[in-house]
Amino acid sequence: MATVQQIRHAQRSDGPAAVLAIGTANPASCMLQNDYADYYFRVTNSEHHADLKDKLKRICKNSGIERRYVHLDEELLGAHPDFSDRALLTLRRRARRPAPRPPVPRTLRSRNGCSGGGRALQLAKELAENNRGARVLVACSELTLIGFYGPQEGRLDTILGNGIFGDGAGAVIVGADHVDCIERPLFEMAFATQTTIPETENEITTRLMKGGLDFHVSIRVPKLLKSNIERCLIDTFESIGISAEWNDLFWAIHPGGRAILDHVEQLLGLGVEKLAASRRVLREYGNMSAATVIFVLDELRRRRARGEEVAEWGVMMAFGPGITIETMVLHAAGSLKEN
């Protein structure tokens, strides 16, 4: 009879989990950032809030974003004008959809906000390494519709959210012990950890209300992250016995906003090209919450294929409610060809 140790060993993979494939998608409707404030106040019949409109224009101008993709266009709003009024619409109406088929085990992660993609990839790593032969599909889909409301005096969170968030979906297949000639690892997942910044539970919050998702993001978030990120990185690399110079790594930082990227770059003394993947995703798509870090990984894959990024080791980081910091050490696996 097999021992518990033998059974346990047989279930585990021989090698580390790796990202085997990446896919991304966006809605067809593209919104230029310079036009968004006029669009938003027009479709929500809120032109009388002139001060709030000016604030949104300033947010859009300083966001580092050029365009975003959104599912909610004027045609859809015309058919459903109650979408922009948090007092009229119910979640039941927004969330009607058929139940998924049951055969494949699923793990649902909800309301993790911008850290959701990082946390899902950590969970996928654990599943792949502890279930020999498993292939784990990570799917992150974000729609701003659930949090789309017209502007209100005293609710600057609504203005901020409408100034930076966009819609997108990202998917990753994670597995260990890849099959030669069939699978090609992109990034090996060497180590993953999560840190929660003490006494920050009210800095980023999400609440499901009758009319949709009500969220709050404190203006202190960029500075709080700046005060804690380097300690997280030092602790992470000490845990695995690697000494790293920050500019010798590649970086997949969740672009929660321009200020966050600026603070990280300044704090770590990074060269201007080190956050190029994150800045491009922010510029072209905005903040797509959990899906964004998958877009950044995909952009890094392209940059490596073109020879624009050559570092062998790197870091992925995502930030969300808690405040939580999700950190993963990545190892670039082999050479990549441009697709």
Automatic annotation (TrEMBL):
<dbReference type="InterPro" id="IPR011141">
    <property type="entry name" value="Polyketide_synthase_type-III"/>
</dbReference>
<keyword id="KW-0012">Acyltransferase</keyword>
<dbReference type="InterPro" id="IPR012328">
    <property type="entry name" value="Chalcone/stilbene_synt_C"/>
</dbReference>
<dbReference type="Pfam" id="PF00195">
    <property type="entry name" value="Chal_sti_synt_N"/>
</dbReference>
<feature type="active site" description="Acyl-thioester intermediate">
    <location>
        <position position="114"/>
    </location>
</feature>
<feature type="domain" description="Chalcone/stilbene synthase N-terminal">
    <location>
        <begin position="5"/>
        <end position="94"/>
    </location>
</feature>
<comment type="similarity">
    <text>Belongs to the thiolase-like superfamily. Chalcone/stilbene synthases family.</text>
</comment>
<dbReference type="InterPro" id="IPR001099">
    <property type="entry name" value="Chalcone/stilbene_synt_N"/>
</dbReference>
<feature type="domain" description="Chalcone/stilbene synthase C-terminal">
    <location>
        <begin position="188"/>
        <end position="332"/>
    </location>
</feature>
<keyword id="KW-0808">Transferase</keyword>
<dbReference type="Pfam" id="PF02797">
    <property type="entry name" value="Chal_sti_synt_C"/>
</dbReference>
<dbReference type="InterPro" id="IPR016039">
    <property type="entry name" value="Thiolase-like"/>
</dbReference>
<feature type="domain" description="Chalcone/stilbene synthase N-terminal">
    <location>
        <begin position="102"/>
        <end position="177"/>
    </location>
</feature>
<dbReference type="GO" id="GO:0016747">
    <property type="term" value="F:acyltransferase activity, transferring groups other than amino-acyl groups"/>
</dbReference>
<protein>
    <submittedName>
        <fullName>Curcuminoid synthase</fullName>
    </submittedName>
</protein>
<dbReference type="GO" id="GO:0030639">
    <property type="term" value="P:polyketide biosynthetic process"/>
</dbReference>
